[in-house]
Amino acid sequence: MHAGDVREVLGEPGAYAGAGLPDALSLPDALSLLARLTRERRHVPLHADLDDVDEPLRLGDAAAPRPPARYIGDAATLVRLYAGRPVEGASFELAGVEAGELNIFG
């Protein structure tokens, strides 16, 4: 269970966008872990342009026969997509992949 899950149930704002999110996403180890997991699991390749992080993320299997999907939005919503959490009401663009295909736990 993630702290964001609890905050969401309680109706707290920013359930998955805590003050430490930009720092967590900018840590090389955190990014390396997500990149490694999505690559090892041969996940759909994804180019993510994050509103709140300077550099784009490249996730998934770069050798996949399909072109990379594209995500534009905030980091918190991307985390929710990969965690299989609800994203209703979030503002983001996703092209070339269905939201459910990003879930790393599914």
Write a structural description:
This protein is α+β, with helices and mostly antiparallel strands. 33% of the residues lie in helices and 15% in strands. It is built from four helices and four strands. It has helices spanning 3-9, 21-26, 28-40, 75-83, and strands spanning 46-50, 57-59, 69-73, 93-95. It has a four-stranded mixed sheet with strand order 2-1-3-4. A hairpin with a 6-residue loop joins strand 1 (46-50) and strand 2. The chain is globular, with a radius of gyration of 13 Å. The model has no long low-confidence stretch (mean pLDDT 81).
Question: How are the secondary structure elements laid out?
Answer:
Blueprint lengths: L2 H7 L11 H6 L1 H13 L5 E5 L6 E3 L9 E5 L1 H9 L9 E3 L11
Parallel strand pairs: 1-3
Antiparallel strand pairs: 1-2, 3-4
Summarize the structure.
By secondary structure, the chain is of the alpha+beta class. The protein contains four helices and four strands.
| SS elements, strand count | 4
The coarse silhouette is globular
Q: What would you report as the Rg, rounded to the nearest angstrom? A: 13 Å
- Biggest pleated-sheet summary: 4 strands, mixed
Structural class: alpha+beta
The number of helical segments is 4
The percent range for helix content is 25-40%
- Average pLDDT over all residues: 81
Report, as a whole number of angstroms, the end-to-end distance. Answer: 15 Å
Low-confidence stretches: none
How much of the residues is beta strand, in percent?
15-25%
Query: What's the helix-strand series?
Result: HHHEEEHE
**Lateral arrangement of strands in the main beta sheet:** 2-1-3-4
